[in-house]
# Entry
Amino acid sequence: MYTDLEGKVAIVTGASKGIGEAIARRLGAEKVKVVVTYRSGEKEAKEIVQAIEQSGGQAIAMHADVAQEADVKELIRKTVETYGTLDIMVNNAGMEKPSPSHEMSLDDWNQVISINLTGVFLGCREAIKYMLDHQIKGTIINMSSVHERIPWPLFVHYAASKGGVKLLTQTLAMEYAPKGIRVNAIGPGAINTPINAKKFSDPETRKDVESMIPMGYIGKPEEIANVAAWLASSESSYVTGITLFADGGMTLYPSFQAGRG
Ligand code: NAD
# Structure
């Protein structure tokens, strides 16, 4: 537990399931007031709010499509109206839609970029604007991926968006460090969430993915939430501009394991 988090206010985007849900629950358990943001999963978001409240925390569900500028502005406004401030912004919402790059439609490209990259930009911009106006030394956490580093055929839009999140995070970290605002990213490896449900339900594919992870298993959303809680807390007070990979070693060139190469 990170006692300094108690009473802080956090927004988590795309929090109705998967990694966002785990982060919302973890921050709720840390006694952070959590805005559980959803795009389509209103029922799920409300259930998460209820669970947080039942274990003694505070939370509220709010709708926001992160690709819509007006939604993101309204999200910040309603958060401040409800909880009085904003200390932690977790830009987690994301999606993927594989296809061979030479056949990828412009609509698909634009959709992934607008959610995974532009959505992160809008969340950062609005949160930073609020923090600057109110002299809040807040913290921002952007959800990147191991694919900010590892190229990913069939996912050119996704890899480009996460590569973008990396430099966006570093640039904002540098720009706002003098104001005490920290901006970091998390780079999850393969995590067991709805985004991967179909893929991991096939035992062969699952085994294949596990073979690319030195630690030998697919991560749990809670293992990403642990990293988010640390980055949100003052335990990471001197950390800004990093991508913290939580990937069981996936970025360590696992094909070289056992002295191969
Ligand atoms: P998920 O599909 O389970 O959850 C994604 C969430 O984002 C959902 O709640 C969805 O409704 C929301 N979302 C999608 N588009 C949105 C929009 N326009 N506005 C608001 N919300 C929107 O996926 P997940 O695995 O929990 O992924 C969360 C984040 O972690 C994503 O950014 C993803 O790229 C990243 N990530 C996941 C993995 C993994 O293996 N699961 C690995 C690396 C990075």
